[in-house]
Target: Tyrosine-protein kinase
Amino acid sequence: ELSKSGWLLDITKLKLGENIGEGEFGAVYEGEYLGQQVAVKTIKCDVTAQAFLQETTVMTKLQHKNLVRLLGVMLHKGLHIVTELMTKGNLVNFLRTRGRSVVNSAQLLHFALDVCEGMEYLESKKLIHRDLAARNVLVSDDSVAKVSDFGLTKVVSKAKSDNAKLPVKWTAPEALKKESLKEVKEMVVGGYRMEAPEDCPPALYSLMRLCWEQEPRRRPAFNKLREKLEREAGKHSGGEGG
Ligand code: ATP
Model:
């Protein structure tokens, strides 16, 4: 069925290169497939492979400049997921290892817009990612940020009844059901919010607070958030000369 669908790749055409990362379920390698630079995620355990096939099923239906693109899968001693190569790695590392001259406010705003556009696309498909965090955003060679890791993505109607492990610190309070990390939950439900990062423009911090509203309906949808971010980006690029 996979081969008919066109998502099953030919393993003899893959050149595997260096290890570039470790996932929870296996290593990630860089490689080349028919002349294109790719990343190959290997999952050895059969049970988890089933779950990841689920992830790729979601990915096959998605194409956007700000989503890491799936090329296909290979079945050979487990499952191999082949995606476009994001040479600058995940966004957490990028932000931590580059100086302020690279990670300036214009670049940060640009990354925010990239992620927002990717999420807006998911939103338009009625999908929720459920694990959006900087570690799941990857940076391409030309410094475009793209959302990755669709393992927990669910169609909106199915999401509520599901009890999968959720990343507590980045999860909306009403989605936190379990007692894990009780303290964090209590603080967030009790109204605690993080302070503005250093040098964060007040308008952007207001936007962050809006996204953290206790009442879900008061949080902006991604299309609204994009409009607001674009307005900010416009202000900044316009203001630079004078
Ligand atoms: P999972 O929950 O699926 O195990 P994970 O967050 O544990 O995900 P992976 O998605 O497997 O991790 O990726 C691990 C690391 O490998 C990433 O943080 C990143 O540095 C690197 N990596 C993953 N995919 C790519 C890619 N397409 N291009 C470049 N590097 C990648």
